[in-house]
Design a protein that fits this description.
single chain; 319 residues; TIM Barrel; 2,3-Dihydroxybiphenyl 1,2-Dioxygenase, domain 1; 8-stranded mixed beta sheet; 6-stranded parallel beta sheet; 12 helices; 17 strands
Length: 319
């Protein structure tokens, strides 16, 4: 279960689907996968939900499939029998939550209050849904709750969109965000799969927030590094900042006092979440040097990509 939840975390966004025609489910799932979001919560708000889940599980095996709006034991049984990876409820029903857990399934119950969250934690859960997120105080409320609940992770759903997505996902206790904006009813009914893929790609790009942080330049020794840094500061009116292994010319240039990674140096790329960036860049073909990964209690902080790019190494670093 922990491995599954970590995979959902790395994907970052969970499309929440209310589908009316199960025949469209497979093409929809493939559009999501192509867009970088191989996960979905198919809600039991429609009669087509169970058949849609079965079709996706059978035809798109790389997809992580969840069942949402599960309100009864009968729905839970149908979802599990259909092959779902996880089950989500809109509210916290202790009886249904226990029933699903006793079945050995991954359960993410909906919560809105500290009391409901504590009840879920008493059942051994460390991840809950927060619904409806925006109407219940949004990310500000979750950051306040994080004080006493430091080990709890949330999946906010309800009112999450492109405008506030980063506000949620830049907080380390957010497992992922559920959303519907990439799977709107008209897009599904119109079979606009390319549009759905494009919306997903934009959401992933927004979520990762990849930006150039600085360029690192290798030097033969400290004297050369200091000279290069001071020259750049003078030319571009940058602040000179000495350090132990390097000197900075403003925030833009890090001049190494010795030969570091890369023939010429390195390029630092910042991101809101290193683990999510590693996942999505790996899907695009990148590989990473695990020996360079550093972590803290919020997740990965830093890691180098394998190889060089124009004579430069590239590393990711958390914003």
């Amino acid at each position: 279960m922990k491995e599954l939840l970590n995979r959902i975390h790395d994907i970052g966004i969970v499309p929440v689907i209310a589908i009316e025609d199960a025949d469209k489910a497979v093409n929809l799932a493939r559009a999501l996968v192509k867009g970088g979001l191989p996960v979905a919560e198919v809600t039991f708000r429609t009669e087509a939900a169970e058949d849609a889940i079965r079709a996706i599980v059978r035809e798109v095996p790389e997809m992580i499939v969840g069942a949402g709006t599960v309100l009864t034991k009968e729905q839970a049984d149908r979802a599990i029998d259909a092959g779902v990876n996880f089950i989500v409820s809109p509210g916290f029903n202790p009886e249904i939550t226990k029933y699903v857990l006793n079945k050995g399934a991954c359960m993410i119950p909906g919560t809105a209050t500290a009391g409901e969250m504590e009840q879920a934690m008493m059942m051994g859960l460390d991840t809950v849904k927060f619904f409806p997120a925006e109407q219940n105080g949004g990310i500000s409320k979750l950051k306040a709750l994080a004080g006493p609940y430091k080990k709890l992770r949330w999946m906010p759903t309800g009112g999450v969109n492109t405008d506030n997505l980063v506000d949620y996902l830049s907080f380390h206790q957010i497992l992922a965000c559920g959303g519907t904006w990439m799977v709107k009813k008209d897009l599904i009914e119109g079979e606009k799969w390319d549009d759905i893929t494009d919306i997903c790609k934009k959401a992933v790009k927004n979520m990762l927030g990849l930006e150039l942080k600085h360029i690192g330049i290798n030097s033969e020794n400290e004297e050369t590094a200091v000279q290069t840094a001071k020259t750049l500061c003078a030319l571009f009116d940058l602040e000179y900042k000495p350090g132990n292994s390097s000197v900075f010319a403003g925030k833009e240039f890090e001049i190494m006092k010795s030969k570091g990674k890369g023939t010429h140096g390195h390029i630092a790329i910042s991101t809101w979440d290193v683990d999510r960036a590693v996942y999505h860049l790996s899907r695009a073909g990148a590989s990473f040097d695990e020996s360079t990964r550093t972590r803290d209690d919020k997740g990965s902080k830093f890691i180098y990509l394998e190889g060089e790019f124009g004579g430069f190494a590239i590393h990711l670093t958390r914003k």
